[in-house]
Amino acid sequence: MGFGYQRALESAGAIRRALAHRLARAIAPLNHGPPPQRVIVHELDNRQFLEQIARHEPLPNILKHLVDMIQRQNRRLHGCFVLLNNGHVRYAVAPTLGGEFASSVEHVATTLQRQIINLPPYAPTAASTAPVATELAGEPAWTEHLPAATRLGLVVCHSLPIRSQGDALGNLLVFSSNCQALTPNDVELLQTIAHRAAIAIEHQALLERLAHQSLYDPLTSLPNRTLMDDRLQHALARARRDGAQIGLFLIDIDRFKAINDAMGHPSGDEVLRQLAERLRVNMRASDTVARVGADEFAVVAPELQTREGAVAVAQKLVTLLSEPALVAGRELALTASVGAAVFPSDGADPSSLHQAADRALGRAKTLGRNRFAFYDYALGLAPSERNELEMESLLRCAIRNNELSVQYQPQLDAAGRVIGVEALLRWENPRLGRISPSQFIPVAEQTGLIVPIGEWVLREACRRARSWIVRGEWPIVRMAVNVSALQFAQPQFLSTVQDILRESKLEPRWLEVELTESLLMQNTQDTAAKLSALRDLGVAAAIDDFGTGYSSLAYLRRLPIDTLKIDRSFVSDINLSAADDSATAVIRAILSMARSLGLHVVAEGVETEIQREFLIRNGCPLMQGFLFSRPLSAGDIEKFLAKSAPPSTGTALALSA
Questions:
Q1: What is the pLDDT of residues 539-570, one digit of tens each?
Q2: I need a labelling partner for 652 at 20 to 30 A (CA). Which of 297, 362, 498, 620 fits?
Q3: pLDDT class for 287, splitting at 50, 70, 90?
Q4: Coil, strand or helix: which one is 148?
């Protein structure tokens, strides 16, 4: 809590204590007053007055009640209050006096304002202060207003000062229709009424001060967040009606703590006051400038026509607050960071706009401070979520803009002959360049985009394979295409494969679908049924990344699988030591299991001659990896195929079985 707020609370406490003291004095006559036959103010009137105070009724209502009390006690007396507010007169007239006389009282009170202000101090210890009687006909200030008084039969004005702690609050004026002196009961009544009026006025002043303290910052006198939110709410209502935009700008003074630490809090407070005044003077009258934190300000800028207008405001704030401040004879260099959010694009209510602007402010600080930043929806997410959101947006654009492509990596036997190719999805973004599949494939799977993308890859691969067969320029090879779990789970997956084969005119035996090991372990009954249907079509199936899941030998025996593809993580272990059984035991186990099940095995990720020699020596003649070729474009894979020798009859028959 800042020192300014602490001082405000202490001040409010002092006011409450003073008011409690005055209320105690006001209630005391009720308990220890004169004998019943001389009760001046009825118990009912006292109770009503105190209830009005407790309910915080408006001051005019309470003063009206007090003048009514005078009228009820003595019908020939007509009271009104002439009050001072910041040195200016305001008044409350008894209803019986009428509007014409009210104007007369206002004019006379203004004329006599200096006399009212300079009334002798009221001594709280004195037993009484006698009202001062003035004949209206003998007072020059009343000369031009006598006709109005005469029509009401008023000839005398009795004046009694209203004071608090020696300060003039105003006068109680009581008009009478005769020149008789006031009775002791009348004097006591007026003194009681004046006392009650002082309490009511003090109470109203307390409420106003507390209201101000609840809505304004005591250090800078700027609106606080509560008042700013209220004004923002009203501005939003108008903007919805008029179709306008509103800018909310959160401002953080960069490294303000260093000023407090180096020069002390009084100097820090002086900097804040100077910045507040700088903002107040330079922003539009329609803007709301508020202090919303220890070193944070905010600006609500309504009626913006364009987002460019909001940018201009943000730049103005950064420039305005980068000017140095002069404190204690020293010039302090200042900078500020600004976070901006715009209604309706960034938020529809004060809370969401605050949150958006706050995130934008964090971004401005992260980017180096002394700058502004605007809210972006992606800023509202955690880093991983933000990356996924941005990736999804880019991926959708990539689909529309034909940024995706298919590359082909050859699969070779021990003699170096191509016996198949794997179709691999690639993405070249015009701004970001090549984006790794490890970045966008998970996002595509999470968003469901993998289904249309996977269908497109399958169609493109089948079309390409068919074109190679038709051209007849190189040996026919099997096309392997990866299928995601979500794509495989689609009810129409089988019919989609059939439709693509029919459209491309590719024979099913030249297509192989690759499924991950973890996919095969999900919904095993449905998986087995679909694999059987694919085999019935003549389409082969391979388990990709084998060894990373939990397939059991018994389960694999029941699945119509043709090929196991050893995961590259196991192949890379061969580099540690080709003779180290602990590094190669898994590969040997997979090869042994595959032989027992009559399955083909392809080793992925082969990059060295040591790996190739080990695989051949242990009975794995089919491989793919960078040792042979990176994934190639359609044109380059065709050149690679043209240089490849025809596969041996045994291999061709084995893969076609």
A1: 999 988 786 655 556 567 778 889 989 888 88
A2: 498
A3: very high
A4: helix
What the block records as the tokens of 423 is 């179709």
Whole-number CA gyration radius for the chain? 45
Q: CA–CA distance from 369 to each of 254, 279, 419, 640, 653 (Å)?
A: 7, 19, 59, 54, 68
Instruction: State the DSSP H helix or E strand holding residue 603, giving kind and residue range, or none if neither.
Output: strand 600-603
CA distances from 613 to 237, 575, 618, 626 (A): 76, 11, 9, 15
Contact in structure between 304 and 289 (CB atoms under 8 Å): no
Q: pLDDT per residue over 593-602, tens digit each?
A: 888 888 999 9
Strands 418-429 and 433-435 turn out to be: antiparallel
423 membership: H or E segment, kind and range: strand 418-429
Pair 419, 411: CB distance under 8 Å = yes
Give the predicted TM-score (pTM) of the model. Answer: 0.47
User: Which residue type occupies 237?
Assistant: A
Give SS3 for 346.
Answer: coil
Q: Tell me how far the alpha carbon of residue 134 is from its chain's centroid.
A: 66
Q: Whole-angstrom Cα distance, residue 527 to residue 369?
A: 56
Q: Which residues pair with 216 in a beta bridge?
A: 223
Q: How far does CA 494 lie from the centroid of its chain?
A: 46
C-alpha separations of 7 from 12, 27, 165, 207, 213 in Å: 9, 30, 21, 17, 11
